């Protein structure tokens, strides 16, 4: 136990050579210095945080295990150190003794409590990611490693929209589409004439090859468009015929896809015969079929 009239951190009987100075200031200073010198040397190796937390670790050197006087003195020093406020962790024992002797115990505790409230940057507040204001920057711990690629400003993700499969574009209607983009036919016709003129001017084989491929692609697109338009006209004619039969009271009959292909082939033969290209078409068809049959024949090596 700490005796009345003694300084904290210096328990035990008053050392020899110290006179009672009464109210004399020199006597009090000598008592403080002597009490500080009587601290065991092993306590200098311990941090003040360990003493305050009550975990001083191994017993310092210079403290004897034998005898009741040494153990009691060390326990009194440890108990007195644990009772000190945590705000005095940066002060040495000599400064603590001098401070307590000058201002008193109650004043010292109030001063430490006031200083601790003025330090907002404690470890607990740094680890707490919550902030009072949402516009205030987030306070993070300095021990957390910052990633190399981090998103400082949130970016809204761009959503790709394909008009072919989007309901906002509506359903595909070939008649409406061709009527809306009918002006493209004039542009393609002008491009085709321009390519033909450039094909006559250029003498380089490389340039002529590129222009020939471009002209062939334009002609194929034009032929595909004519074929699609012809199929649309045929489909529209069949629909009108079915509507007329329904108005006459007949039961509607819908053609199968195979029957529609046969009708389209018959129309194609009529068109080829009208343009006198039927023989060339049939000769190409025979050669193609002969090549297919030749693949299935056994080879001469077998």
Automatic annotation (TrEMBL):
The keyword Ribonucleoprotein applies. It holds the Pfam family RRP36. InterPro entries: RRP36. Residues 283-302 have a biased composition (Basic residues). It is found in: Nucleus, Nucleolus. Associates with 90S and pre-40S pre-ribosomal particles. This is rRNA biogenesis protein RRP36. The lineage of its organism: Eukaryota, Metazoa, Chordata, Craniata, Vertebrata. The gene is Rrp36.
